[in-house]
Structure formats: C-alpha cells, structure tokens
Amino acid sequence: MPAPRAQFHDLLDRSVLVTGGGSGIGAALVEGFARQGARVAFVDIDEQASRELAERVADETGRAPLFIAADLRDTEAGRRAAETAAAALGALHVLVNNAARDDREPMDTVTEASWDESQAVNLRHFFFMSQAAAPHMRRAGGGAIINFSSIAYLLNMAEIPAYATAKAGIIGLTKSLAGKLGPDNIRVNAILPGMIVTERQKRLWLSDDAIAGMQERQCLKRSLTADDLVGPCLYLASDCSLGMTAQTMIIDGGAL
Fold first, then answer.
1. What is the distance between the alpha carbons of residues 11 and 243, in angstroms, rounded to a whole number?
2. Is residue 242 part of a domain?
3. d(CA 189, CA 246)
4. CATH number for the domain harbouring residue 77
5. How many domains does the structure of the chain reveal?
6. What is the SS3 assignment for 243?
C-alpha cells in the first residue's frame, strides 16, 4: 500500500523528533512528516542507514531531516539528542517514541541482564525522552507525544515475556504522562501496531506461513506495512486530535 496522501496542513513547519527513525517504521514516519512540510529530526544508532535515509528524504521531499546519532539506552545521550533537536529545529512540538527491538527470548532463558536490556531498549527511554521534550513543548504552548506500543502483549506470545512487559508498560506510561502533561496542553497517546511486515521482520522472524496465518486472522486480507502507521501518527500529531489524549489506537488490520 502507498503512503497516505492526506495533507495535514497544520503540520507545516511543526518541529518533530522521531526516535528509532533510521529504518523500518521509524523511517516511514520520518518521510511521512517531511512530506507534510514538518521540520524533522530523528535519533538512531545505525549511522549508515540513517544518513542514507536523510539524503533520500531530502532529495524526494525537499525537506532535509536532521539525523542525531545516539544510543537511547544511555539516558544522558537521549537527553542531549532532545536538546540538539530542539535547538536545531527552533522548538519541539511533537515527540514520537518509536525506537524498540523485538528480540525473542523464552522464559527459561531470560536472565537479569537480558531482562534489563529489553526494558532499556523498549521502555525506559520512552519516559526519559518525554521528560526531556516536555519543557520545550511547554514553551511552545503545547505539543503531542506519540508512543509506539504493540498488540504483541495482548496475544499471549510465549517467546517474548520481557518485550511484552515493556509494550504493556508503555500503555500505563502513556496514561500517566497524559494526566501529568494535560494541563500544559501536551497530549500523550499510543499506537499499537499489529504484524507490520518489514524487511527486518522477514529476515529475522516472519515466515511466509506466519504472514499468511496473520492475514487469515485479520479482517483486512493483506500484509500491513510501515506506511500503514504513517497516517495514524500524523493524525495524533496534528490539530485533528486536539481533544484526544490518554488513548490507544490499534492498527492491526482487525486482528484483535
């Protein structure tokens, strides 16, 4: 499916920071915001893929996104990335917490170290990036934080206990941050993707049988791709959703 053609005119020149923006879902979001005329910065650990993306998006949209190299497991590095983005973009109106890694590890092999690693990669930085972005949003008169969770924690998947815990925790964090930041006109919502077929997923986890099985379960009988998440994210970032906070939006083709 092609990326959405809808135009959110209020996103023109709005300042947006996307975490994990170098590939997969994050790359689609970076391109999507750039096509709306937003000023976009993104954080990623993969420098080569990120620089290639920034060049391609600049060529195709005329809007050059700013790549900031950082490992978000390092809280201070994430904080510096937020400050760099705000300074370069002149403000910070939208934060998309997307960075994650869905490693498979069954219960019997999880260690304290692997558990803590999963929470650091998939949950902890959502809070600290939000904490770093909030003062800039207050100065801007408000903003939007969009947290990417997953339907994975609703599916009783045996091989991802740490990941599922993190993705469930994002929902609790979303609601808590919405309560705290609402008086500052900062909205906080979450998107829960279903099975999104990316090149990484196909390389590591998704067989043809798994994809076919999920399509059978879905109401929409096609594979979902990263582009299917762009429109919902743009909507939550835009003034179309000014009355919406502390909510979750499931984008799974009707699997649940």
1. 17
2. yes
3. 5
4. 3.40.50.720
5. 1
6. coil
Range of the domain at 98: 9-196+227-247
Which residue type, as a one-letter code, is found at position 9?
A: H
DSSP for 210-228, written as a single string: HHHHHHHHSSS-S-B-GGG
Render pLDDT for 86-122 as a digit per residue (tens, 0 to 9). 999 999 999 999 999 989 899 999 999 999 999 999 9
φ/ψ of 52, rounded to 5, equals -65, -40
Q: Which amino acid is at 191?
A: I
Q: Distance between CA atoms of 43 and 21, rounded to whole angstroms?
A: 6
- Rounded CA-CA distance 188/177 in Å is 7
pLDDT (tens digit, 9 = 90+) per residue, 156-200?
A: 999 999 999 999 999 999 999 999 999 999 999 999 999 888 777
- Give the Cα separation of 37 and 9 in Å (integer): 8
DSSP one-letter code for 2: P
* pTM, full prediction: 0.95
In angstroms, the CA 30 to CA 35 distance is 9
Q: Which residues are catalytic?
A: 163
How far from the centroid of its chain's Cα atoms is residue 252's Cα? 15
